[in-house]
């Protein structure tokens, strides 16, 4: 629940606040002035009808927190001292004054009612139409003790309160284990070092949970992490031991992944943490005395994280370049092209493909201004080295929208002498881009054909196996397609994600059959992959390309590499329509097995679906987990009339306020999962059962609370919050 003071929401309000002036000490309360500040919930759509009164002394120090429901007679109506917040020893006296004041001056309670309506009207964007409040003076406000809540839920609220108050740890590196459960970053680092050294990668998930706890509860986390990176950098330069710096960089990558997930789930405070992390990187890494190698490595990790890079990184990088040039007394000779030295260094690296060149170039140029990047990329288009020249057009997949647009214009203007392979790549990918960039690519293709450039043919795939993960709780899906290569294999990886499109793609080398078998084993253990089909892969990639183009996103250049390896030249954006997919599946079942879709089978499938979450691995991540859910659960628990029923009340609230609202998403997820199961040689669940479940979800006449799978999802969502709060 997000709470804000009324005066912050309505800064021009001239309404009087309740105040208490104590000229001499008569009880426990020290003399002085005390103000009673009203806080209201600002969660959209919430009608909790509550107010939180924070009592501040003249030094603006909180001395009491009073919770009160505006509807009297419920266990949570109060007023009472909210034990989830610190209270002064004399808080009870302040509570008594508040109750006395409200009862003696009914107009104050009337003002609170009016303020509540104003807040709801502002937050929800429409006039408040809730039930009328009791008339001031018609009821007498009586102090009530805080309602009893099961210990498990008390712990949960205490944890949430601690997070909201930002009471963070102030430990230093190497000072040993602190009291409580929050681990030191140094301890986590040593555990990572051990796990990575012995290649016990299955233990990384547990370490990531510890890392999250440390990130959320240690206010020096960022400083400690940067100190580790700098120390590892210095040690690697002194004794050529890269293990320490590799581990610290791995932790940085995991940290950014945790922050990205929290950002997607609208976790409060995440944006601030990300901003501070980038500011500290700019100040202490880029502008510090770190090596160029560390700067490049961190830049690469930031790019891979898919977190928006702030201008401060670009500014710091520009200052570092100027500083380095001045320290090394670098001056440009008249007539010397600054790009030639850069291209020479790329040639010396012995890179084998233009995709490798793009990766290296991005690490070098990503933090310099877009206009300078564009100028360098223009030089790439005319470079003498063919590998570098072929990498230029691949910058169409640059992370920056501005640079992508600039590159598309460069390609359109200089396509007469592009290579046959570049022409093939332009043709394959033209449909992956928004209309403006696509128009420039079409100009380039036409220009190349006028210049009689022959399109290089695609290779033919002799044998390949497609493995697909399920659509998970974050609406992400992964594909690994294993293809023979010489005496070994390669796996073409594609990650799709709702709200992004094609989120990632890359190629993994598997030099031997043993490594390939180990890779498949690990893949199945970690991701519930099934052997799927090219038809399903093609369909899902096209869905993701359509979504990405609509959002203005671009896949990375490795998707072209994957398409070439797999011989796929027909991928283009096609939006997914769950209704059409369900209709097609119904037609197929009606034709082949009509008995499977009879109403009795649908009823049986719906009933047994409640057991799927504990039985099948592909449902492990099927639960909701974001800030909106947190708010719904906490409000529900606080409004629950019977503490013993608080858990079930929360589940009902999740069903009504979260899952019902997100019903279309669950229809889409289950429809895609039915197609996923249909594509499998050995599906864990017969695909027609998942189809029947998707049909039930799409039938709005069936309340979502009557679908056992969704009830199980609600329970698991509650458990996720409890588990996260306990850590």
User: Structurally, how many domains make up the residues?
Assistant: 5
In DSSP terms (H or I, runs of 4 or more residues), the helix count works out at: 29
Shape annotation: globular
**Low-confidence parts, pLDDT < 50 over ≥5 residues?**
149-181, 332-336
Helical amount among residues, as a percent range? 40-55%
Percent strand equals 5-15%
DSSP E strands, number? 11
Q: What's the overall average pLDDT, rounded? A: 84
Radius of gyration: 30 Å
Structural class: alpha+beta
Largest sheet: 6 strands, antiparallel
> What distance lies between the first and last C-alpha atoms, to the nearest angstrom?
20 Å
How would you describe this structure to a colleague?
The chain has 727 residues and is an alpha+beta fold. The chain folds into 5 domains: 3-124, no CATH class; 162-327; 340-450, no CATH class; 465-566, no CATH class; 578-726, no CATH class. The chain is 54% helix and 10% strand. It has 29 helices and 11 strands. It has helices at residues 6-9, 91-104, 106-124, 151-165, 185-197, 204-217, 221-239, 243-264, 270-286, 292-304, 311-327, 338-348, 354-365, 370-381, 386-391, 401-413, 420-429, 435-450, 513-527, 534-551, 558-566, 578-592, 599-608, 612-615, 627-639, 646-659, 663-679, 687-698, 708-726; strands spanning 3-5, 18-22, 32-41, 50-56, 62-69, 80-81, 465-468, 476-485, 488-497, 501-510, 530-531. The strands form 2 sheets. Strands 1, 2, 3, 4, 5 and 6 form a 6-stranded antiparallel β-sheet that branches. Strands 10-9-8-7-11 form a 5-stranded antiparallel β-sheet, with helices on both faces. Strand 9 and strand 10 (501-510) form a beta hairpin. Helix 7 (221-239) packs parallel to helix 9 (270-286), helix 8 (243-264) runs antiparallel to helix 9 (270-286) and helix 14 runs parallel beside helix 16 (401-413). The protein is globular. The two termini are 20 Å apart. Residues 149-181 and 332-336 have low confidence and may be disordered.
């Amino acid at each position: 629940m997000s709470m804000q003071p009324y005066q912050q929401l309505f800064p021009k309000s001239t309404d009087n606040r309740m105040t208490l002036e104590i000229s001499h000490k008569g009880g426990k309360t020290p003399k002085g002035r005390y103000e009673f500040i009203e806080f209201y919930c600002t969660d959209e759509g919430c009608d909790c009808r509550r107010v939180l009164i924070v009592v501040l002394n003249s030094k603006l120090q909180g001395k009491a927190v009073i919770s009160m429901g505006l509807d009297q007679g419920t266990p949570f109506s109060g007023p009472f001292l909210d034990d989830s917040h610190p209270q002064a020893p004399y808080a009870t006296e302040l509570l008594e004054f508040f109750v006395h004041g409200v009862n003696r001056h009914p107009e104050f309670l009337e003002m609170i009612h009016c303020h509540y309506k104003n807040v709801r009207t502002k937050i929800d964007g429409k006039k408040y139409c809730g039930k009328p409040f009791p008339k001031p003076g018609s009821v007498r406000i009586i102090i009530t003790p805080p309602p009893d809540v099961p210990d498990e839920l008390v712990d949960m609220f205490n944890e949430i309160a601690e997070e909201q108050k930002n009471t963070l740890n102030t430990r230093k590196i190497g000072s040993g284990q602190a009291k409580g459960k929050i681990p030191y970053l140094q301890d986590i680092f040593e555990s990572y070092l051990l796990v990575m050294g012995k290649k016990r990668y299955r233990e990384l998930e547990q370490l990531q949970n510890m890392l999250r706890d440390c990130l959320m509860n240690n206010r020096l986390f960022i400083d400690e992490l940067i100190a580790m990176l700098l120390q590892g950098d210095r040690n690697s330069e002194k004794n050529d031991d890269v293990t320490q710096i590799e581990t610290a960089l791995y932790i940085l990558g995991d940290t950014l992944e945790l922050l990205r997930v929290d950002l997607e789930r609208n976790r409060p405070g995440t944006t601030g943490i990300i901003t501070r992390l980038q500011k500290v990187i700019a100040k202490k890494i880029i502008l510090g005395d770190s090596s160029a190698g560390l700067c490049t490595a961190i830049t690469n990790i930031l790019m891979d994280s898919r977190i928006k890079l702030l201008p401060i990184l670009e500014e710091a990088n520009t200052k570092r370049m100027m500083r380095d040039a001045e320290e090394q007394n670098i001056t440009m000779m008249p007539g010397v092209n600054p790009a030639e030295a850069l291209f020479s260094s790329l040639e010396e690296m012995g890179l084998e493909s233009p995709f490798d060149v793009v990766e290296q170039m991005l690490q070098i140029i990503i933090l310099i201004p877009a206009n300078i990047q564009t100028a360098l990329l223009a030089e790439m288009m005319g470079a003498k080295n063919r590998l570098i020249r072929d990498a230029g057009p691949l910058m169409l997949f640059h992370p920056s929208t501005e640079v992508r647009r600039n590159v598309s214009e460069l390609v359109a203007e200089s396509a007469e002498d592009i290579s046959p392979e570049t022409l093939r790549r332009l043709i394959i990918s033209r449909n992956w881009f928004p209309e403006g960039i696509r128009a420039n690519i079409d100009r380039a293709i036409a220009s190349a054909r006028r210049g009689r450039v022959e399109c290089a043919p695609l290779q033919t795939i002799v044998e390949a196996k497609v493995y697909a993960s399920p659509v998970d709780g974050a609406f992400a899906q992964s594909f690994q397609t294993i293809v023979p290569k010489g005496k070994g294999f390669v796996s073409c990886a594609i990650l799709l994600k709702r709200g992004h499109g094609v989120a990632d793609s890359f190629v993994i080398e598997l030099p031997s059959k043993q490594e390939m078998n180990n890779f498949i084993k690990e893949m199945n253990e970690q991701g519930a992959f099934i052997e799927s089909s090219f038809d399903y892969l093609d369909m899902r990639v096209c869905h993701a390309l359509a979504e990405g183009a609509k959002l203005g996103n671009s896949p990375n250049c490795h998707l072209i590499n994957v398409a070439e390896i797999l011989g796929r030249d027909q991928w283009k954006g096609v939006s997914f329509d769950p209704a059409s997919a369900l209709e097609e599946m119904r037609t197929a079942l009606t034709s082949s097995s009509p008995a499977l879709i009879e109403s009795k089978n649908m009823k049986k499938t719906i009933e047994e679906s409640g057991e799927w979450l504990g039985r099948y691995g592909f449902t492990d991540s099927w639960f909701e987990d974001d800030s909106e859910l947190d708010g719904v659960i906490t409000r529900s628990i606080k409004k629950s009339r019977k503490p013993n029923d608080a858990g079930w009340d929360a589940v009902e609230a999740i069903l009504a306020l979260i899952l019902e609202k997100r019903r279309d998403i669950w229809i889409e997820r289950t429809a895609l999962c039915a197609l996923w199961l249909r594509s499998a040689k050995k599906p864990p669940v017969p695909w027609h059962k998942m189809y029947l479940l998707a049909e039930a979800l799409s039938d709005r006449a069936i309340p979502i609370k009557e679908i056992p799978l969704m009830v199980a999802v609600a329970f698991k969502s509650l458990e996720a919050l409890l588990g996260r709060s306990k850590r």
